[in-house]
Amino acid sequence: MEKTILLIEDDRSISEMVRNYLTKEGFKVICAFDGEEALNKFHQSSFHLILLDLMLPKLNGMDFLKIIREKSLVPVLILSAKDGEVEKALGLGFGADDYITKPFSMIELAARVRAAIRRATDYSNSEMIKKPDKIIVHEITLDIHNFLAEKNGKEIKLTFKEWKILKLFFMNPKRVFTKEQIYHSVWEEDYYGDENIINVHMRRLREKIEDDPSSPHYIKTLWGIGYRLGEF
């Protein structure tokens, strides 16, 4: 089935270049040139992936991302002209699944797009069928079938990556995971030592599930080793 991508980029020359290349690669690409137009198109159709520029007119990329994450786990790949780690961390923290820094090669972009769609598709088509419907750890219930997490009956808004990290620990309560093992399991790609990605996702996850993120109980840090699920 043809995969549909929402490309949100206000630079029309970049938008046209990306659209033409991904179309030749077999994707259907819908373009939007500002945040408000993107939000309207997002609500009108369903997409397999979103390519999102951060610096947008009318509604910026971060605000767009926060709005759609209230209802959707669609993979989001940020196209960023800024190379700072703060920019990357902020984007990932607000619910992006990956980022690529401008200028980028079309070959790398297409590879990132395919990887993100494959991860989301493989997860939704296979894992939730093979595993139990619900996993309960202390006050948190993970509903595998409906991709929901609740704490004391109240829904926790998780991104796709946060969901997979939490599920990894819940499914393996006695195991210690290194950052490399977490990356392999969640991103399903080779790990090149970029600890910032793991650190940002873990921090954001703890902010959502812990009563006191600075003193976590659900996911414990073993300094110099990795992480494990807490005991209750």
Q: In words, what does this structure look like?
A:
The protein has 8 helices and 12 strands. It is an alpha/beta fold and 232 residues long. Helix 4 links the parallel strand 4 (76-80) and strand 5. Helix 6 (160-171) packs across helix 7 and helix 6 (160-171) packs across helix 8 (195-209). It is globular, with a radius of gyration of 18 Å. The protein starts with a strand and ends with a strand.
Which key features would you list for this structure?
232 residues, 44% helix, 5-stranded parallel β-sheet, 8 helices, alpha/beta, 12 strands, globular, 4-stranded antiparallel β-sheet
In terms of topology, how is this protein built?
Layout: E1 4-8, H1 12-24, E2 28-32, H2 35-44, E3 49-53, H3 61-68, E4 76-80, H4 85-93, E5 98-101, H5 106-130, E6 134-137, E7 140-143, E8 148-151, E9 154-155, H6 160-171, E10 176-177, H7 179-187, H8 195-209, E11 219-222, E12 226-229
Parallel strand pairs: 1-2, 1-3, 3-4, 4-5
Antiparallel strand pairs: 6-7, 7-8, 8-9, 10-12, 11-12
